[in-house]
UniProtKB/TrEMBL annotation:
Species, as recorded: Hymenobacter gelipurpurascens
UniProt keyword Metal-binding, yes or no: yes
PROSITE patterns tied to this protein: CYT_DCMP_DEAMINASES_1 (PS00903), CYT_DCMP_DEAMINASES_2 (PS51747)
CDD domains (UniProt xref): nucleoside_deaminase
Name under which the protein is recorded: tRNA(Adenine34) deaminase
Pfam family, one: dCMP_cyt_deam_1
GO molecular function: hydrolase activity; zinc ion binding
């Protein structure tokens, strides 16, 4: 029995994460709650969909947007089993989500805990490549 709404919704996320794991995905589940009502649920689907952006949080935000009929999620809370990554964090900010509640902090590039420039940090999982070479080419003076 969950007396705290946050605990209740996080338990729901955990069930979603178990579904994701059973389908060969990373065990991540997310949901969006507006005015106490679950308006969207999602599981990690990057492998099933063959899509790099199919993180549970992004899928839940997209579903909430479609359910509500607008992109303003300022009255909503996003729940996730894991700390949203910086990609998901951008979408959370863009959609004006009021609260984010998660259970497991991220070791790397967490949307709440990452420090510094994401493109060049070396604080990434060991199997990742070194940072890309960065080249900045200013726009030319005359565009003729």
């Amino acid at each position: 029995m969950h007396h705290n709404p946050d605990e209740h919704f996080l338990a729901h996320c955990q069930l979603l994460a178990q579904q994701a794991a059973a389908q060969g995905e990373s065990p991540v589940g997310a949901l969006v709650v507006c005015d106490g009502q679950v308006v969207a649920t999602a599981t990690e689907a990057t492998r099933r969909q063959g899509t790099i952006t199919a993180h549970a949080e992004l899928l839940a935000l997209q579903a909430a947007r479609e359910h509500l009929g607008h992109p303003d999620l300022s009255g909503c809370t996003l729940y996730s089993t894991h700390e949203p990554c910086v990609m998901c964090a951008y979408a959370i900010r863009y959609h004006r989500v009021r609260r984010v509640v998660y259970s497991q902090p991220s070791a790397y590039l967490g949307g709440a805990t990452a420090l510094g420039p994401v493109l060049t940090t070396t604080q990434v999982p060991a199997h990742w490549a070194p940072p890309p070479e960065i080249q900045v080419v200013p726009p030319s003076e005359n565009n003729s």
